[in-house]
Amino acid sequence: MDKSSAELGHQWNIAVNAPLKDLFTYKSPQGLPIQVGQSVKVPFGSKNRQLSGLVISASVEKEERLFEAKEILSIDEERPPLSPQQLQWLKWIAEYYIYPLGQVQELAFPPLKTKGARASKKSPIVPEVAAIEPLKLTEEQENVLRQIEIDQYQTYLLHGVTGSGKTEVYIEVITKVLAQNKTALVLVPEISLTPQLIRRFAERLGSEIAVIHSQLTDREKTEQWWKAVTKEKKLLIGARSALFCPLPDLGIIIVDEEHETSFKQEEKLKYNARDVAVVRAQMENCPIILGSATPSLETWHNSQIGKYKYLSMKKRVSDRPLPQVEIINPRSDSDQGDYTRERPHWLSQQLLFQLQDNYKKGHQSALFLNRRGIAPTVQCFDCGFIYLCPNCDISLTLHGKNHLVCHYCNYHETLSGHCPQCKVGEPKAYGLGTEAVENDLRKFFPEARIFRADRDEIQSREAIEEMIRLMENREIDFLVGTQMIAKGLDFKSLTVVGIVLADIAFNIPDFRASERSFQLCTQVSGRAGRHQTSGHVVIQTYKPEHPSLVAAQLHDYELFVNA
Ligand code: ADP
Ligand code: ZN
C-alpha cells in the first residue's frame, strides 16, 4: 500500500456487496485503522442500508468532490484481512469473468458470521484413523516427485493411469510443503470427495486436515474455514468452492481429476475452478498440480506446447495390470446360453458370464449406467404419445411402477393405465435406467446382495459412507450405479465392471461428447481390479467401432487425442 497517498485524504476505494461494477469511495473515521484488503461495513444508498465491502485501494483523488464521501462504519472483525495476492486474484476474476468485485469477494468468506461455531454431533468430518507409514514409492512416483519443485510457480500435468498412485504423489508433495510451514489446497470434484478419499489423506496427515464441501452445514463449513484460515489445519481438501478460502502462505494447489466438468460453476459467477486455480498459483508463486488419468484436451494441449510441465505415470503400482476391456455389441451377441431364466434384453451373454463367474468366486461386480429410474421415456403403444414435462418439454422418466418424474424440474405425476391422448392405447416404457437394471439383476441373482447407488438412493454423506462401508465389508455383490460409482472409489475385491450402455455418453449432442465418453469409460474401468485380483471390464455398445471406446479399451490416451 502506498502510505503517503492513503494519509492524504484517508479515503478508500471499496467494493461493496452489490451487483455493481464500480468501486465506491469512503472516508475512514477518526481512529479506525483501515488497510487495503480489510473487510468493512459501509452505509449504502438511502434508508441507512449497510453493506459489507472490501477495501481495494487508497483513493488518491485530490479534486473537490461533488458530494462528500461517507464514512466507513466499522471494521468487519469476522473477516480477516485478505493478502495482496488474494486481492489481486479476486480482482483478476472479477475482470476476467466480468462480475462485480464486491460479489466475487463474498466467496472468500464463510457462510456464517459466527466465529468459532460449534461442531455438530454427526460423524466427524475428518475421520479419526490410525496413522500409517508412508509407502515405498514406485520408480514412477519417485521420478515424478523429483521433478516437482515446491518453491515457485509452475503448472504440472500429472497424467497417471487409474491406480498408478497419484494420490500418493499428492501426499508426498504436500508433506514437503507443510514441513515448510506453508499451507496446501486440494480440490476434487464434489462427487469424488468421499470419506474414502479423506481417509487416505487422514492416514498420513490426519491432524492437518480441514474439509469443505456442499454436504456440510453452514455451521460446519464456517468451522472448517476458520481452521484453515488460522492455520490450525494446514491442508484444506474441498470441492470447487474451497478454492476461494483465503489460506495464508499457500504453498501448493492440487486439482485432482482436472478434466471433470463439475469444476465449472454455471450459475451466477461462471468460472472454471481449475483455470482460476492456475491463476491463483501464479499470483501466490506456488506450484499447482493438475492430475488425471484422462486429461482434458485443453490441459493436454498446454502440456504439449510447454506451458505446463508434463509428468506421466503409465503403470499401476506393484505391476498390477490394467483391466482387460471387452467391447460387446448386444445386437450381434450370440444367444446361446442360460435359458433357465430369461436373460434381460440389455444384458449380453458375455457380461452375464462375467457377472456369474465373478459372483461364484465371491468377488464384487459393478454395473454402470448413467441414467436413473426404470426408463427414460414412456410412450403410447398405439398413437405414439410421449409423456413430456409440461414445464421443460423433455420426456418424463418412469420410476417404480407408475411414477413419472422430470429430471430437470422435479415435476411429477402418476402414470395411469391408458393414454391421455387416444384413451385406448397402453403406455409402454422405452429405454433403460439403473432401477430397471437393479430389478432385473434381482430376478437373475435372487440370493445376491444388490445395492443401487444413484441420486434416488443416495442423498447424503451418511448414505455414501454406508455404501462404502458395505462395499469394503463385502456385504454387496453387485453395485449398480450412475456417475456416483464412476470416480475415485477403490475397493479391494471389485473385479468386474460392466458399462451397460456406453452409447449414452457419446450420443449427447455436445462437441465434447467423445472426450467425455473416453473419460467416463476409462474412469469406470479404472475401478476394476485395483488390487490383488486383476480386473475385467465389459463395455456394451451399439457402436463398437466408436474411437472413444476403442481408445479406452486399449488404455491409450494418445490414440484418443490423435483420433
Ligand atoms: P490413482 O489416484 O492414480 O488412481 P491411487 O493413489 O489411488 O491411484 O493408488 C492406487 C492404489 O495403490 C491405492 O490402493 C494405493 O494405496 C496403492 N499405492 C499407491 N502407491 C503405492 C506404492 N508406492 N506402493 C504400494 N501401493 C501403493
Ligand atoms: Zn420439468
The value of Rg in angstroms is: 27 Å
**What's the overall average pLDDT, rounded?**
90
Shape: globular
Gap between N and C termini: 53 Å
Task: Write structural notes for this entry.
This protein is an alpha/beta fold. Helices cover 28% and strands 21% of the residues. It is built from 16 helices and 26 strands. The protein has a 7-stranded parallel beta sheet with strand order 9-10-8-11-14-7-15, with helices on both faces. The chain has a 6-stranded mixed beta sheet with strand order 5-2-1-4-3-6. α2 (84-96) packs antiparallel against α8, α4 packs across α5 (166-179) and α14 (513-525) runs parallel beside α15. The chain is globular. The model is unreliable at 1-8 (pLDDT under 50). Bound molecules: adenosine-5'-diphosphate (ADP) and zinc ion. Adenosine-5'-diphosphate (ADP) binds at residues 135-138, 141, 160, 162-168, 317-318, 490, 530.
Features:
about 30% helix, disordered N terminus, 16 helices, binds zinc ion, binds adenosine-5'-diphosphate, seven-stranded parallel beta sheet, about 20% strand, alpha/beta, about 575 residues, single chain, six-stranded mixed beta sheet
Quick overview of this protein structure:
28% of the residues lie in helices and 21% in strands. It has 563 residues and is α/β, with parallel strands linked by helices. The N terminus is likely disordered.
Question: What topology does this entry show?
Answer:
Layout: H1 3-9, E1 11-16, E2 24-27, E3 39-43, E4 50-58, E5 70-71, E6 74-75, H2 84-96, H3 101-104, H4 139-147, E7 154-160, H5 166-179, E8 183-187, H6 195-205, E9 209-212, H7 218-229, E10 235-238, E11 250-256, E12 264-265, E13 271-272, H8 273-284, E14 287-292, H9 297-304, E15 309-313, E16 324-328, H10 349-360, E17 364-368, E18 377-380, E19 397-399, E20 403-405, E21 412-414, E22 427-430, H11 434-444, E23 450-453, H12 461-472, E24 478-481, E25 494-499, H13 503-506, H14 513-525, E26 536-540, H15 547-553, H16 557-562
Parallel strand pairs: 2-5, 7-14, 7-15, 8-10, 8-11, 9-10, 11-14, 16-26, 17-24, 17-25, 23-24, 25-26
Antiparallel strand pairs: 1-2, 1-4, 3-4, 3-6, 12-13, 18-22, 19-20, 20-21
Helix pairs in contact: 2-8, 4-5, 14-15
The protein binds adenosine-5'-diphosphate and zinc ion.
